[in-house]
## 1
Amino acid sequence: MYSSLRPVAVLCCLAGFIPRVFSDTASDLSAALAQYPSLSNLRQLVNQQPTVINTLFGNNKNFTLLAPSNEAFSSFASSHDRSLPSAEPDLLKNTLSYHILAGGLTYSNFDGPRGITVPTLLTGELYNNRSSGVSLAANFGPGANGQVVLIQKQSDGYVQVQASLLQVNLTALDKQWSGGYIQMVDHVFDLPKNCTETMEDTDGLDALYEALKESGAYGPIDTMPNVTCLGPNDDAFNAAGNPQKNFNTSETNWMVRSHVIPQPLYPDQIQNGLVLQTLRNTSIEVRVEGEHIFFNNARVQSTALTNNGVVYVVDKILARDPTPASGSAPTSTTDPSPSPTKNAADKPSATKQFLLAVIVAGSFSLL
């Protein structure tokens, strides 16, 4: 188990004692950062905001600070039209929280074949509408329930961190101080958004975003905790005949919800042969071939973190399974399964029938 985290909630009860109990935390961090000229902007922020730093770290000795470099501070100021130190107090606190890992980690901890998922101190439903799960609790302790980042060491030895939509570079300092370890990153992390907003901001998912809006499925998906969203890219929609334009609302709703798994599944938790159920009660089988991950016939192209789970951008629309995985019809009364052939008025056009036939045929070809 990695070094565990004491619940941040305890800090709230001790708020009145912070100056006395934790008085050395900010000064210790400032002294540690002083050894690195490329972290001078962060050191200045620490000196300006000792109360915030003391509140975040407390007297715990088992954190890892992903310290934004001076380059990261400049990039943040350019993209947000303001400096990080001038951000509103809540934004500053939440942003710093997302850079603090709930465990003491060094370069040697990043060796996993698909990296490591690590909880941070970022909590609250707006940015962390998810739970830690068994594996994270086993590795980092039951109190480590904050929003996560994904850290992976590449074949060339470089380390990358996935935080929300950003993939940033990590420079391993392995610097110890009284609060744990310090590593350096070259960007300030953006705070996570919900599934729909994440897809809207992701290049190549315009067609999926259109389908989400058309079907109305985005509302439940955005507010539901603990989800994995499979996002077919625009090329996948084009290859399938643009079903987001040709399907009716019920058909589109089926398609969208057949790409949502009601649990967060991070890359290091993926296993070959794993079978998952979607919101539409259909089955998805996971395949791992070397460095590539497949959900049924769709290969993962990239990953993004949302406030309630994870999005995998994939290169195909998953073949539609006409029979629910459990062998029984979905039981939802608010979102019934589509019945496009129930009557003449609802009967799909020849184009739609063709598209459905192609997708269904694709599912059988994978058996």
## 2
Amino acid sequence: MTLSKNWGVIATWRMAWEGVSEAAQLLQGNNDASGAAVRAVTCVEDYPFYKSVGYGGLPNEQGVVELDAAFMDGSTLAIGAVASIRDIANPILVAQALSRERFNSFMVGEGAQTWALAQGFERKNMLTDRAHQHYLKRKRETLDRGLSPYTGHDTVGVITLDQNQQMCVATSTSGLFMKRPGRVGDSPVSGSGFYADSQIGAATATGLGEDLMKGCISYEIVSRMGRGMSPQQAAESAVYDLESQLIARYGRAGDLSVVCMNNRGEYGAATTIDNFSFSVATAAQTPAVFLTTREGKHTLIRPADQAWLDAYIERITAEVIV
């Protein structure tokens, strides 16, 4: 295949910036989309201050960290995923390995953990002292008082495009903070939390999984790009159409945010909340963080300034007072 000068990587949230920067170096050096996507996600999984993914991820209502992850190769459409897996250092590596399996490519709970350990993946206690302090604080403020604890559901989703025009997508999350044991959201579910087709493009989502799954949002965005929409048009129309349908038919809509990229390296983002952030790098764009603001049925995008970036680091590393 003839090399294209186009390459790109886009991911949900500021927390992916370091991983996006590493993935950009790999893609610029003509490494493949698969390795770049997985590398970007492992950077997030390994950093203990990102409290919605991997090590340091926030636990369920019983204080146990259960992790979800998925990987999709947009050229072969191969998918691998894990859900409610415990004590595995990098769930994304397990998901990528499962994508090479003809059968049993989506595994959950104890079965997923047993298979991962048998394959030699690292066992690790994923509950940090800091995450446990967050848990005790939320439990005291909500469950112990008979209130709903459900806030916070950030997923890292990464899309990569390499110089051979191959695309991949990878996701990882600890899911809804204080969720019931065994709860699974959209992140490991094909078509909802992620979808990739190298002939068109890819999309990934973050927000309230229970609502994102109602619209198969990632597949819908890729489908709309395939019908001729730009990534930005596809993202905005899919997100706001789903929100409208949810409100009209279900009575409410939770947070819905997406990023997408086509196979030419053009990207888009849409959200129903203010200050949704995403990280991106392309052949024409050095690694950067962008912020979004909703305006009606459109998402306005602006670069994050240094004050915002500094405040972000201060916030995620601040002492947890129980």
## 3
Amino acid sequence: MYTISDVAKLLGITAHTLRYYEKEEIIAPIRNANGERVYDDANLAWLRFVMKLKQTQIPISQIREYAQLYVEGEHTTQARLSLLENHRNSVQSQIRDLTATEKVLKDKIAAYKNSINNGIGYDKITREKWR
């Protein structure tokens, strides 16, 4: 069993974030005899999954929806699958957008390096090119 500070330290988040997730019904930690939050390995695994989802910019409302569906039981498996598939489609779209942006940045960086290596001002070349 882990305390709230243990979990915060293990996951690199704040105790405030954990309390927020509880308030949003994303996690339901166990309470000990003193009423203190304690977390088990299943809570930790779930929180790691939540953090991965957060890295993909999923709205907290969708994480809450997924958590509520999970708590409802096996009959929500299809709904959970659909939610994750829809989100994966969003992530794939983000990846395509980021890949295109990376290419633009790569090309711009190469042009700057080329102009520096050739002793020609990049801004001058750019102005001439766009006239």
